[in-house]
Amino acid sequence: MKRKDLRALAGDPRFIPGIYNYCDRWCERCPLSNRCLNYAMEQADDDGDPASRDLANQKFWQKLHEIFQKTLTMIREEAAARGVDLDDTKLRSEVAAQERAERRQAAKNRPLARTAMAYTNAVDQWMKGAKPLLEAKRDELTTQARLVIGDPESEAKRLWDFIEVIRWYQHFIYVKLCRAIGSRATEELETDEEMRRFPKDSDGTAKIALIAMDRSISAWAGLREAMGDEGDGILDLLAQLAAIRRETEQLFPDARAFVRPGFD
Ligand code: SF4
Fold it and tell me: pTM of this prediction?
């Protein structure tokens, strides 16, 4: 997308400022995608490769990086046109970015982040172990469809939906918790009282992580019910997730009350 087009797009009043900061990045299911500048930019740049929309894929992050770079260039041009020299602040912002990166790195070692990472890995293990069960379930539903028994199509759709939800948020929870912890560390260094009164990025980020946990818990519970006695191990995952949620709510007590642009 050309910068000229990007500038025209960014000026469209239908977009809700900052809506993409505290969303779940699941654009295909987003009820507000037509109000989101980020989505419009991605659509304009869409190369048709599903990997570029997959949160766990390198291509997704590369794409995000490219969008960020283009936006940065646009901001620089705007600043220059207004006579503001951004290079004056460049060094300071580079140091700040480096410090932020170090805090994010440190966040990965916090117990909450480690537990979230353990959950991410446990989901992979469960999915791997449950493959034969899921395949057997698929065969059972196919037989039911052939014999015209019940509503196997809806059941298959429901099952698939639970798995999609679990998979979508599997890595997301960890990534967002690391960011929330890192942001909290940055916010604690803020000395300006005025700034301290602003809604906090750590709370907004923790809120979307909590929403991801709520939805994952519902999906696991639904999957357990659908799989009956065969849903072995799901209870452990539910307990793991519930513990992460509890700990997140304790660490970020104001997160649930955070108002996300557009969504709340
Ligand atoms: S606000 Fe919606 S459309 Fe925009 S990035 Fe988030 S999920 Fe995607």
Answer: 0.79
